[in-house]
């Protein structure tokens, strides 16, 4: 028999039992659908998180002061001399206090309004690659400020816009300072450590005056190459211990990838349970088919069909079932991955106590795009076909071993 003959006979047999074939196909759909949906969604989630982590660049390390440790210029200079460190950018973070402008006063808040970040304003392009001044100019003086996108374009109607030429007063409890806005920044988006769109940037000198202390809140560290990240982190931790908290972009990205990879293995294991159910369902269907077609098997063998022909015919039926289930299941998985991505996309409803923040405001929504690759699609289909063929081997073997006279006698 030719290959097309096997397909013709197998397809005809399956069409004669449409309801049973349909239910069997639906039974195998679940496995490929779960595998495709979960793998595509987790791959998209990994890519989204890692991309957000690398907005600063893989060559960035963040250092935060802990407690009352004196993070002064001597500490900054020591870190700057560490092998592999390219530059150190100290900062003051002012996340509590009040801002008054246009007759309205509102509290600084890392979630609902703005925070003040004091840095060397001329270093902004080094801290945020591709950041762009939308209007005005950068004046690195103690009475000038540069505002992020959300500050001059607020989403909350109760918070007045702070734009170029605006005057505002910042109060921290330790001091009160007035500022004139000299420039405004274009929309940038959420980064790992803070969102520049919701920051009001002032000079280091202004930050020192507002906090009334010489100890910085922390520093951004630019390193010469990402491969030195771990050694630099260890060097800083060995020197300063628990007085400084160190965060590495590469280490965080690697940890995220490891965690999501572990979850992906777990989800795939769960999905494999549905394949076991499909395996048993196909085997049951094939055994039932063999039992119902004993006379047919005896007749075709009496007409000259070889043992191999009978076996290949039943395996072809299982293959068609697996192929249909794999194609439908993979298509359903692709559709489901977009639904899952849409469900899990978006900003957190509320910042939780103890969450890591250097500043924020209302975070930009996290958009997850599932990653559909030819390899993933092919895997979904081949897994279903493989399970179906394995499930059909024993029933096909049993059918092929029936002797013509014995088969006809049973009927």
What does this 3D model show about the protein?
With 411 residues, the protein is an alpha+beta fold. It has two domains: 3-54 and 253-410, no CATH class; 60-224, no CATH class. Helix content is 51%, strand content 16%. It contains twelve helices and twelve strands. Strands 1, 2, 3, 4, 5, 6, 7, 8, 9, 10, 11 and 12 form a twelve-stranded mixed β-sheet that branches. β3 (98-101) and β4 form a beta hairpin. α2 packs antiparallel against α8. The longest helix is centred in the middle third of the chain and has 44 residues, at 249-292. The radius of gyration is 33 Å and the shape is elongated. Mean pLDDT is 82; it is low at 349-363.
How much is the average pLDDT? 82
Count of DSSP strands: 12
Tell me the span between the first and last alpha carbons.
26 Å
The DSSP helix count reads 12
For the sheet with most strands, the description reads:
12 strands, mixed
Give a quick rundown of the structure.
The chain has 411 residues and is of the alpha+beta class. The protein contains twelve helices and twelve strands.
Helices and strands, with pairings:
Blueprint: H1 3-16, H2 18-53, E1 60-65, H3 73-80, E2 85-94, E3 98-101, E4 104-107, E5 115-118, H4 124-127, E6 133-136, E7 144-147, H5 149-152, E8 167-171, E9 176-185, E10 199-202, H6 204-211, E11 218-223, H7 229-240, E12 244-248, H8 249-292, H9 294-302, H10 307-344, H11 374-400, H12 404-410
Parallel strand pairs: 5-10, 7-9
Antiparallel strand pairs: 1-11, 1-12, 2-5, 2-11, 3-4, 3-8, 6-9, 7-10, 8-9
């Amino acid at each position: 028999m030719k290959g097309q003959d096997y397909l013709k006979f197998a397809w005809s047999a399956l069409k004669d039992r449409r309801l049973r074939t349909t239910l069997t196909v639906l039974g195998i759909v679940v496995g490929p659908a779960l595998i495709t949906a979960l793998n595509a969604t987790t791959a998209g989630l990994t890519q989204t998180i890692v991309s957000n982590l690398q907005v600063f660049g893989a060559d960035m390390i963040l250092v935060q002061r802990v407690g009352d440790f004196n993070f002064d210029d001597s500490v900054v200079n020591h870190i700057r001399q560490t092998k592999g460190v390219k530059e150190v950018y100290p900062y003051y973070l002012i996340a509590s206090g009040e801002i008054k402008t246009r007759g309205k006063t509102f509290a600084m808040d890392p979630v609902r309004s703005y925070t003040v970040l004091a840095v060397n304003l001329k270093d902004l392009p080094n801290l945020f690659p591709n950041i762009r001044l939308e209007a005005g100019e950068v004046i690195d003086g103690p009475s000038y400020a540069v505002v992020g996108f959300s500050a001059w374009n607020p989403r909350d109607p109760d918070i007045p816009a702070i734009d170029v030429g605006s005057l505002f007063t910042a109060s921290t409890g330790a001091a009160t300072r007035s500022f004139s806005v000299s420039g405004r920044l274009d929309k940038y988006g959420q980064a790992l450590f803070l969102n520049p769109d919701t920051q009001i940037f002032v000079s280091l000198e202004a930050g020192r005056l507002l906090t009334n202390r010489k100890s910085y809140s922390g520093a951004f560290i630019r390193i010469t190459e990402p491969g030195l990240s771990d050694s630099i982190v260890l060097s800083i931790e060995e020197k300063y211990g628990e007085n400084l908290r160190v965060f590495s972009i590469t280490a965080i990205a690697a940890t995220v990838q490891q965690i999501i990879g572990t979850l992906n293995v777990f989800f795939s294991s769960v999905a494999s349970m549905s394949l076991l159910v499909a395996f048993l369902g196909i085997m049951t269907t094939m055994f039932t088919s063999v039992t119902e077609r004993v006379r047919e098997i005896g007749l075709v063998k009496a007409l000259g069909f070889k043992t191999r022909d009978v076996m290949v015919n039943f395996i072809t039926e299982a293959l068609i079932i697996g192929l249909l289930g794999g194609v439908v299941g993979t298509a359903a998985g692709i559709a489901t991955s977009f639904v899952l991505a849409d469900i899990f996309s978006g900003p957190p409803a509320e910042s939780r106590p103890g969450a890591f923040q250097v500043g924020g405001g209302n975070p930009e929504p996290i958009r997850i795009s599932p990653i559909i690759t030819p390899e993933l699609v092919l895997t979904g289909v081949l897994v279903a076909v493989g399970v179906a063929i394995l499930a059909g081997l024993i029933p096909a073997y049993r059918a092929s071993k029936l002797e013509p006279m014995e088969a006809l006698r049973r009927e």
